[in-house]
Specification:
Layout lengths: L17 H8 L3 H13 L5 E5 L6 E4 L5 H4 L4 H9 L3 H8 L9 E2 L3 H7 L12 E7 L8 E9 L2 E10 L4 H15 L3 E5 L4 H9 L6 E5 L3 H16 L3 E2 L4 H7 L1 E3 L5 E3 L6 H12 L6
Parallel strand pairs: 4-7, 6-9, 7-8
Antiparallel strand pairs: 1-2, 3-10, 4-5, 5-6, 10-11
Length: 285
């Protein structure tokens, strides 16, 4: 006898999340919303068996169904602090909220949590490295450089440069020092906007690495992010708990299909990481 399990946190009512909403609601949207609201406010039991007809069972479980979490007075605050997530993501991943946003989360909490681990490392002459660089000149965005170390099929993030303020000259000098320390086989920089100038400047510094540009379009960004999802699903990638893991959790697909950070978040680290994977030719781009 075989057993098939579908397990998910809420991910909206459209796209990939639609099937779970349809399973949970059974067509009774209003009644299901009332039940979920009751679970969240404590008026309904935190564990609900919605259907138990043979051969399938459908149930909902809230974090308060776990005794030690229910007894913890600051569970929500602790999780938000430790994971670096905001109210919206907590509501979706822990509070059975299907209405957080019309956007879909691209990287699930489970995927990011499994990948979170490891430490920052200094350069090692015997190791193999690849870099991804996302440039920025506006005050709102961050300039980012992500260093990946390759060990067989496994890739690990070992260095993150992330700065919001400063001149292009200052950012380039810092990134050049990183390249000299790690001596990556290849560096990939997004060449849209200021990136083309950065590409030319870095290429002219005589650095110990091949340096290439990457033109970001809607289609090429889709391919970058898809490869990053695959790397996480295959557990080929490890990432120290950092701004990178925070940004991954806040990265969304909007209703129009556009990939970007949730409001009040950034996605520069996500793009830098995806470019580093491209640089390493993960999945043979």
């Amino acid at each position: 006898m075989s057993k098939l399990q579908f397990i998910s946190t809420p991910n909206g009512k459209r796209g990939n999340g639609a099937k779970y909403w349809q399973m949970a609601s059974g067509g009774d949207d209003a009644g299901t919303e009332r039940l979920l609201a009751g679970i969240r406010n404590g008026s309904e039991k935190p564990y609900q068996i919605l259907r138990a007809d043979t051969p399938s069972v459908l149930f909902l479980t809230h974090w308060r169904a776990v005794e030690r979490y229910r007894q913890e007075s600051d569970f929500k605050a602790r999780i938000m602090k430790e994971s670096g997530i905001g109210e919206d993501i907590f509501a979706q991943e822990f509070d059975l909220d299907f209405n957080v946003s019309e956007a879909e989360t691209v990287f699930s909490f489970e995927l990011v949590d499994k990948a979170t681990g490891g430490d920052w490392e200094a350069g090692d002459k015997s190791a193999v490295y690849y870099l991804g660089i996302d440039s920025a000149t506006s005050g709102a965005d961050f300039s980012v450089c992500v260093v990946l170390k390759k060990n067989g099929a496994q890739l690990s993030v070992v260095k993150l440069y992330r700065r919001q303020k400063g001149t292009s000259e200052q950012h380039l000098a810092a990134i050049a020092e990183i390249i000299r320390e790690y001596e990556p086989i290849n560096c990939t920089i997004e060449k849209n906007g200021s990136g083309q100038v950065w590409l030319e400047q870095l290429a002219g510094m005589g650095l110990p690495s091949s340096i290439e540009g990457f033109s970001t379009t809607r289609d090429s960004k889709e391919a970058l992010i898809s490869r990053l999802v695959i790397a996480l699903e295959r557990e080929d990638l490890s990432i120290p708990k950092s701004y990178i893991t925070q940004e991954l959790l806040a990265f969304q697909r909007k209703a129009d299909g556009k990939l970007e950070a949730a409001p009040k978040f950034h996605d520069d680290c996500v793009i830098g990481l995806a470019l580093a994977l491209f640089s390493a030719r993960y999945g043979k781009f």
